[in-house]
From TrEMBL:
Residues 151-175 are annotated as: Disordered. It comes from Nothobranchius furzeri (Turquoise killifish). Signal peptide: none annotated. Residues 15-114 form the Rieske domain. This is Rieske domain-containing protein. GO terms for molecular function: 2 iron, 2 sulfur cluster binding; metal ion binding. PROSITE patterns: RIESKE. Keywords: 2Fe-2S, Acetylation, Iron, Iron-sulfur, Metal-binding, Phosphoprotein, Repeat.
Length: 175
């Protein structure tokens, strides 16, 4: 199959060299830090994608997330709590139902763009990324940079704390 690129916007200048195309195809998932931002480059079914590496929900790393087609869109599924994020647009997708509807029918809905995505281009077998310049806040911004590192550590610590509490409750109940 011919390699295509995820066309969300046309790049012009500001291109960062990511690596050789062959190597990135082989790796399938590649982590890079560009302009102080941690991103994930994905090669899937002949197409390159790039997005912020940490999930907008609680900063989980997306690197090992499965990819599935949901509602006609390829999505990465965050390994941490299984949130679904479309590869091209960074849209958060969720299944829900309209409470007015009887019987209830579950459908996929979009929360809008939650994960910042970046543009991938190829020139002579080399892959470049143009970082997103979309203005305004996108939820995945929260877990980037120095502050993001602290927030990610906090999210981890909270998880450990919940586990510890669950253990304590269990040992209280069963001992
Ligand atoms: S951190 Fe990704 S789903 Fe919660």
């Amino acid at each position: 199959t011919e390699d295509r690129l995820c066309e969300t916007e046309q790049p012009a200048g500001g291109l960062h060299f990511i690596g050789k195309k062959d190597e990135l195809i082989e790796a399938k998932r590649s982590f890079r830090t560009v302009d102080g931002r941690d991103i994930l480059i994905i090669h899937h079914q002949g197409v390159f994608y790039a997005m912020d590496c940490y999930c907008y929900h609680a900063g989980g790393t997306l690197e090992n997330g499965d990819i599935e087609e949901i509602n006609g869109k390829l999505c990465i599924i965050c390994p941490k709590h299984k949130y679904k994020i479309s590869l091209c647009e960074g849209e958060g997708l969720y299944r829900g139902r309209n409470p007015q509807e009887e019987p209830p029918v579950y459908r996929w809905y979009s929360k809008g763009v939650k994960q910042r995505t970046h543009t991938v281009t190829e020139t002579n077998g080399e892959i470049f990324v143009k970082m997103s310049s979309q203005p305004g806040w996108i939820d995945s911004d929260y877990y980037q940079g120095e502050k993001g590192k602290i927030e990610r550590a906090k999210a981890e610590a909270e998880k450990d704390e919940t586990k510890k509490n669950e253990k304590e409750i269990k040992s209280f109940l069963y001992n």
